[in-house]
User: What shape does this take?
Amino acid sequence: MAASTPAARNLSSAKGCRLKHWGHGTGRSDGARGQRSTVRAGGMSHSTPPPDLVFRPVHPSRPDRVRGQRSTMKACGVSRAQPEVTLLELPEPTPPGPGQILVAVEAAGVGPWDVLEIDSSWDVGLRPPAALGVEGAGSVLAVGPGVTRFSVGDRVLAHEAPLPGGSGFWSERILINADHAAACPPDLDAAHAAALPVNGLTALQALEKLDLSRGQRLLITNGAGATGALAVQLAATQGIEVTATASATAAERLLGLGAREVVDYHDPHWPTKVRDGFDAALIIAAGTAVEALPLVRDGGRLCSLTSDAPAEERGITSWDLYIEPNGAQLAQLAEQAAAGTLKLAPEPLPLSEGPAAFTRVVAGRAGGKKIVLIPG
Assistant: This one.
């Protein structure tokens, strides 16, 4: 997913974590060609991928083992000695404490932000050896004191940071805060549920801050990415007129999701191809905020998910946004996804392919899909 800014809330008040989204050039179908995007957490940023990190898969038959532990679980993450993403065997999480639940993970989302967990640039409380991952879905195995919203056997989904158990969702079991979880509707399968939390909450919280009304116009850069596609859909359902930048191959899909207009970002003159006077701009492609600002009307709003919001001018309010866990908002998104009014595009892969999947996402080779890992 820092001290609060005037226009954005923290990912987590407990650890001061901030997450910003990677835009063009990270495998999504929209972006400034050849441009590297960065993710910022805790005041630091990295290119893709950081040169000092190595992502080397370990053969499934040779996991790193935690000695002296009688009860272990399969996971994908990092050991103490090496900042390498490998397959692991980790000790079972401790029993849930007050306000916590223990979840059997059915699917876990993979995002480019997960790279920042490795060297603590994004401090999510990871305590190696530990699994990576800050989003997923599963079933409740145990509830801690004071938890009344969930019972054993309930299916849930969540975005969690910091991680109370010191280990993430890329594992068979995880300890999370019950307040950050949402009930998973019966019609929403685990893969789709796990693909929703980080991207969905980012899109929803950004639109809430932009506070647009029916009939107003919104420009979204990187509309074909995982977050952008959800933002297009959420805005369209509110009657907002959306123009999105994307590759030509993604235009038909975005129009089907509710965009009014799609402009090809490959055209260096794309800003001249759209009608200006937008009421707001949502920046999901790094490096496009400066291009988008002149297209926003006087007194409008610009929200950047890539930490590059330009200085305010002409009365335009401009800010960077960082998401935070929110169980109530996630429940709203899950109901929409289950009803089919919010479409997702997950690519499920077995947990054993986690190291390769991680490398693929960080290198920008996900092909516009949201990769989710399936334990078992």
